Amino acid sequence: MEGLSLEPYPADWQAVHDALQPRRRRVAWLWWLVPAMLAGAGLWWLLANDNGAANANALVEENNQPNRVEFQKDSQSNLQDELSETRQQPERSNEKNPTSVLRQDTESWLKAVGSTIPSIADNREGSQLYVQTSTNEPGRFVEAAKKAENQLPTQPAAGPEVSPSRALVQYSEMPVANNNQINQASIAKNDSTLVDAAPVNLLASTADDKAGADTPSTKQVSAAAVSPNKPMQRKMRVAGYVGAGLTWPGSGITAGGAKSLSDMANNIGQGGGSAMSYTTQQFGTGGHAEAGALLEWPLGKRMRVATGLGLNYTAWSENLTLYRDSILPGGAFASRSMLMDVTNKYSLLLLNVPLRVSGPIGRKEGMQWWWHAGIDNRLRLQLKQRFVISTQQSGFSPQQQVADIVSSSTFYQPQITLGMQYRHNGAGGPWLLQPSLQLGLANVFKSGLHTDTYLTSINLQYLYYFRQRR
Amino acid sequence: MTHEAEVIQGCLRNHAKAQKKLYDAYAPQMLGVCYRYTKSPEDAHDVLQEGFIRVFKNLHTWRGDGPLAAWIRRIMVTSALNWLRSHKQLELNDGLEKAEGAHLWEGSGPLESLQAKQIADIIRRLPAGFQAVFNLYAIEGYSHAEIAKMLNIKEATSRSQYLRARITIIKMLEDAGAEKMTDYATR
Lengths: 470, 187
What we know:
CATH topology of the largest domain in chain B: Rna Polymerase Sigma Factor, Chain: A
Largest sheet of chain B: none
Largest interface: A-B, 18 and 27 residues
Number of strands of chain A: 16
Helix content of chain B: 55-70%
Shape of chain A: elongated
Helix content of chain A: 10-25%
Radius of gyration of chain A: 29 Å
CATH architecture of the largest domain in chain B: Orthogonal Bundle
Number of helices of chain A: 9
Distance between the termini of chain B: 62 Å
CATH class of the largest domain in chain B: Mainly Alpha
Distance between the termini of chain A: 31 Å
Strand content of chain B: under 5%
Oligomer: heterodimer
Structural class of chain B: mainly alpha
Largest sheet of chain A: 8 strands, antiparallel, barrel
Number of strands of chain B: 0
Structural class of chain A: alpha+beta
Radius of gyration of chain B: 19 Å
Number of helices of chain B: 8
Shape of chain B: elongated
Order of helices and strands of chain A: HHHHHHEHEEHEEHEEEEEEEEEEE
Number of domains of chain B: 2
Strand content of chain A: 35-45%
């Protein structure tokens, strides 16, 4: 009876082998990428949208100066030493200077709470990361970091299915004060449900300088992440994805057909027995492709949340035609002549940080249907535009004008996504086919020929979930 | 150094090739062990995987004072019992009940004439509690005192479960024999 031998499956050895491999640090490294990217995105947003962008750029350069305070020192004494060194610099020796007062305040604050900085990490049994950009004032960064600490949830969420980790991003703008008043109005956007339940908790806050219009401002962007030492890797799934689809410009789904943007009836000639109106028609279609990686965690028993990083390329062309219509008295149409024909070709390069929530709808044997919704946090890295404008006004010979514009300015273009997933967990592995309908509301152009152009797209994504360690 | 000793040394150094050799040498036999303790083939494969993970993680504790196969087998049995506990399939009545009909099968009996696979299939049809005790006593050779300690039950309960398992097996064999006779008569 003891001689019973059966042939194991090949997958048995694979599972044993996978379980014996040392834990990969790569996943943990990827985790820190998220707050770092969010901090970078915040900085870009500042540079692209604020009038004081040049000032901010200057501060970024100054950021390399040695008087910067690192908040990740091993001991409080290191912080104190650096602050002391900073104070000894000649340009900062004037005790009447309000920045010195601020520095003194900060030093006092450090003495008061500095000992708790490492213990915060210890209490949460995790680690913290601060990402700092653009500051040349140690005291200010400390101030910002202190605020970040205050806004972090004091206790990790309990329970097996909730938040294994937390992240925080804070942006604050503070004045180079001519007095020692740091009048800072902070607006913290904090979705408490998200904080308690999501594995990636994002808190964003902005601060405005109310000290006076003539006060120059500095800017700070900081990000902090706390990752308790829970075995989140066991719950986390890693997926690579590729996707492609169709894109249409314009507001509303036009399926590539003609759409009258403005049926204007500008009666410009009341006399003479005729009137004029102008009609603009827009045609357009295009495509996009995206590839990236997703990290997915359970969120309760019936939901999952995912985030990641992707690179998106979108290209489309559109044709706009401007017609002049002759209208007879009484409103009857007489004739139409083309005034201008514009052909535009665009290509966008986007960095995407999707945030997605999904949940099952139903299942039958190995087949599952899931819903998913979220937002694609997309940063426009580059926009190429090519205009070909033909004019054909009566009395003039046709003219053509070609213009190529390459813009590399960054611009935040979020896209809302809604869709369905089909998952099949068969014997072939955890493959997942995810057809998703993405409804984009991306303000493509900041300025120029079009003030607002929206993109609607249908996207088909194919995800591969890597095999999980037992 | 013998071939097996070399393989073990490789496993202790976490060499995948050595681990694969050890696995290939013992996995079929150990899957047979897991098969007897579980109800479905998938469960047996799960137990096998968990058992071998424990084998490789605890190989440094093997002192070499007995056959390696016996040591691996003990780990497989323990893994199977843990698996049954975690899946709530190991529920034993903790009272001594009279096992009527135990006399029907004493010593060597009808099981001796069957193939190992047939025996395993019969054992797998037992209720989970009977199945574990029968495997541990009749197949693995543990005493009732040892079984009581392993399963955290009374020794008398182990005896009772074993006797009831035997009765159930005999009844299964009798029913199977009656079916065969019926088949033969209706041809």
